[in-house]
Hints:
This protein has 634 residues and is α/β, with parallel strands linked by helices. Helices cover 30% and strands 23% of the residues. The site of 5'-O-[(S)-ethoxy(hydroxy)phosphoryl]adenosine (WTA) has 23 residues, from α11, β24 and β25.
Amino acid sequence: MSQExxxxxxxxxxxxxxxxxxxxxxxxxxxxxxAQGDPEAFWxxxxxxxxxxxxxxxxLDRSNAPFYKWFVGGKTNIAYNALDRxxxxxxxxxxxxxxxxxxxxxxxxxxxxxxxEVNKFAxxxxxxxxxxxxxxxxxxxxxxxxxxxMLACAKVGAVHSVVYGGFxxxxxxxxxxxxxxxxxxxxxxxxxxxxxxxxxxxxxxxVRRQPIVESVIVVKRTGHDVSMEQxxxxxxHDLMSLPIANPVCETTVMDAEDPLFILYTSGTTGKxxxxxxxxxxxxxxxxxxxxxxxxxxxDDRFWCAADPGWITGHSYIVYAPLILGATEILxxxxxxxxxxxxxxxxxxxxxxxxMYTAPTAIRSLMRFGDAWPNRHDLSxxxxxxxxxxxxxxxxxxxxYRVIGKERCPIMDTWWQTETAGFMIAPMPxxxxxxxxxxxxxxxxxxxxxxxxxxxxxxxxxxxLVIKTPWPGMLRTVYRDPDxxxxxxxxxxxxxxxxxxxxxxxxxxxxxxxxxxxxxxVIKVSGYRLGTAEVESGLVSHPAVAEAAAIGVPDDVRGxxxxxxxxxxxxxxxxxxxxxxxxxxxxxxxxxxxVPTKIEFVASLPKTRSGKIMRRVLKARVTGxxxxxLSTLEE
Length: 634
Ligand code: WTA
């Protein structure tokens, strides 16, 4: 459980006439029923809005379930739908991307300019030998070149694996190894809170550990001195000024089921798993969900304030807004740098109409008070959005009242890396209750069920499951199909349901309330981390014999990490060692994984079979009941 769970409220917020008049989908109920009647026809109808080099012959192939295939036989490329098709229309002169650096640098890209840059970089990738199916690791801050790199990979048929710029050496090295990437795209550094994060240094160390990388392309962003290894490292701007960087590049024709990207995410056990998504179904799902939930139209300026290195950024910064031909904002730095009104200044300056962010960001900005946003003209906003963890009603109301001026409905979207896009989310015409993502998206069948698979009555907690396949679903865990089946489909294997890992409840109105993760995944500031990652990070330090990590509720960050370490014989506990271990985690995994508290213990609560009982540790911190202790070892 992340935030303290707020019981379902009977507080309703109804859309204004203005919102209803504009809404693309006016009657959610009718559309939901229609989709439910014939989901395949429903998704095929949405797929018709996109470009296919060749049409599919079968919408859904269930023959090898749960390895589903969508739009079988279809030929397409998501980059074609995001860019090529727009430059053939008036949209070529429309702004695709407005970028602001933390240090005040600015850039903007029309569809034409973005298309040309992507073409040039696609040709650069080809000249380095990148071919269809090759994995390319991307490790950068929030700059336009990150999007260009991802789109160029898609264009040539390469599979991108983006590693969030907040991860460090070991996390990066693990992901390079799993994906077997020979090419890595990075930057010298990234600006954050006025400091330079030295990404290239981290890359050098990660590549030393995983020498499989043959070429490193470096975008110059911060301009500080970095070491460039002859024959391995190339400056992006040098490559982009060579004749090989031709601004015309044929888009590779991909099979609908050809992989588009791998994105590593934390699971219950072991190393992060590579969630695999493909070109065809993914593009249909993310563009439909974005268009209907945020009512995106040509006059919008859409700002998803997430990082492109996470699924939210993949789907709703890099791909879906461009597929829809929208104008979007990308901002490099911290929301409160140099002052807590940075975001609100951006909204006013660019006339943002839709702002999509996370509860943790809302809570942290809320703490600075109303005066900061009140200084700015936020009147262009018409819709707000939230993702990443349950939003507590207090933060919801603040966002609604102070930022949206009680005019802008809040779209609370529940989904996962695995689902690719919104699964439970309202549309602007749907009445809201603060803290609930309302109802499932059309074409999506969800339920809350008990261990036996019986549907839970309203108000009763259970497992959130998805009962039927959808076009954006993950296709597998990269190089580990067994894990895909085990993790997501084994709990209700007789029924073929997908297990989300979340616990939830429905209320009397059929609205869904997410309680939190059921497993050992911790959401820290909306970022997903596994206890296993933090624990193996700690154990990789020579002082630590064994470790357990838990998530503990926190007012701003949702959860923070507490860690318990058993030291090796002869090692003395000390404050200095606590600091050393924190530094070690920062270095190995990244700042987001650093425990708020590290405690040294003589033993850890374990089951007789030797599994650490994190539940017991958690209960001791939060004062919750310890539950069944019958399996606890003496
Ligand atoms: C949680 C992020 C409540 C949930 C898109 C899920 C949410 C996990 C919400 C996936 C929400 C995401 N309300 N909880 N609106 N959105 N979650 O893969 O626990 O980083 O399983 O995807 O975030 O995290 P992930």
